[in-house]
Each structure stands twice: as C-alpha cells, then as structure tokens.
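Hi! If you just cloned this repository, the fastest way to understand the data is to look at a raw example. We've pasted two of them here, unedited. The first protein comes first, obviously.
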Amino acid sequence: MAISNVVTLNEYRQESEQVIIDDISAQAFLFLQEQAQENKLSMRKLLMEHLLGLACVVKAVEGPEEARNWLNKISSEITRELEK
C-alpha cells in the first residue's frame, strides 16, 4: 500500500513540475513575441535563432552529442505535433 502512495506522490510532483515548466515556457514565448513585435523582427527568425543559441549553450556545456540529442528530440516532438 505504501508503494502506491509514493508513486502517487511522485506523479503529483511530476505534474506540478510540468505545470510550472509550461507556465515559464509560456511567459518566455510571450516575452519573445513582444520583443519581436517591438523590434519589427520575424517571430520565426527570432525563435530559430533562440533555439540555435540554446543548442550552442548545450553543446558548450554538455558536448556536441547532447546538443544533437536535444535537437533530435525537438524535431521529433514537432513532427509528432504536426501529425496530430
């Protein structure tokens, strides 16, 4: 019985963490969108540069293989979303 309570608590923590991540991500997107509009920049170009910048940071900190893993995961997620 105690094991199921631990699993439930763990699931709750993961769900709570995901809500926080989603909120931060939404705020970051809105900030980028606002900045793109204010500076008359293409949102598409800004997002692409932002993602590439993040990949460069991951490459510098975690190595090129991890950067490739991140980019592949992002690509897979986008493909899955487009197929819905």
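Ok, and the second one:
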Amino acid sequence: MDNTLPPEELLLHTLGLLEWRLNRLEFLVDGGVSQTKDISKEGTVVSRIQKMEQALQQLSSRSDTVKILLNIQSRFPRLLAPDAPPPPSNDLSQNEKFSMVLAEATSYSTVSSQLRALGDVNLPPTDSFAKIVALQPRIEEVNRRQYEQAMEISELRKRSAILVSRWHEVFILGQGRCTAEWDSRLRHAEREVRREEVKNNQE
C-alpha cells in the first residue's frame, strides 16, 4: 500500500481491499454469488463498514464452517494468531541504513506537507449548526404532534371500521333477514288460502 496517498484516498483504498477480501471469503465459503456486491462504493465510510459487519454476521450465521472456526478461535486464540515478526536485523552497515532513510525521506516530507495542509483548512461556519440546535425543541414538538395525530388517525380508522361493520349488519344483513322472513310468511299464508279454497270447493 502506498503511504504517499492522501488520507481520504488511503481510507477508501483500505475499505476497497476489505470488501474484496470479504467477497473472496464469501465465495470460498458459499461458492455462490457474494452478498458484498450490493455494497455501494459511493456510500459513506460508516455505511460501508456497517454493511460489511452485517455481511460478516450473515456469513457466520449461515455457514457451519465459519461457526466451527470461530469456536476454535475462541477456545484456542493463539492457534490462528499470526506469527510474531522476526526481530529486525542489525547486520546492515551504516551506509545501508543511511540509504534506507534517504529512500523514505520523500514519504516523510509528503506526510509533513499533508499535515500542514490539514492545519490550514478552515473550519466551516458554525452559524448553521447553531440554528439547527436552536430549532431542535421545535422539531421535537413537531414530531410529538405527528405521533399524536397518527395515533388519532389510527383510532378513527378503527371506529370507522366498527361503524361500517355495524351498518352492514343492521341495514344490509338485517334487511335481508326481514325480507326472507316476510317471504316465508307470505308463502305460508298463500298455502293456507289455497287449502281453504280447495276445502270450500269440495263442500
């Protein structure tokens, strides 16, 4: 990794490498399409890190192999730990050490200039932030009113549903029952009249 990159590009480059490694890990474990392809490269740094954490949690929850490896790591933490780097060699001559320092001198000057550039950056005006903070009580009051209105609307919907159900039961179903009862009575009366007519004719 190039240490002469600006801090922003260095951070984005590191995130890209982490996403690529996660992509390879998912492919090795699942053998299918990686879930990290949906991570937007244009998102914020925090959102990209959160999405990678979610992808790792999903991978550990659906893969028995990952669960076994995590269990082994928790029981034997030194087993998967990287080996300690070897101690630096002191066999270099004085000239070789000077050459190494001179080779990295440009990196030091670049970092120094970047730090000075950060020191010269002007802070954004705080007036807009102060106005937002001053509006915070009013925003909370508006949110509270919106919540109360939503609760009232929900209660009115419930009452309306009860009224519509009652109206349908009384005026529609009730009228239908009354009509059916009247029809049954008329049929019964018609049969009685016919019986009387037949009886009178026979006499």
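That's it. A detail worth noticing about the second one: The chain has six helices and no strands.
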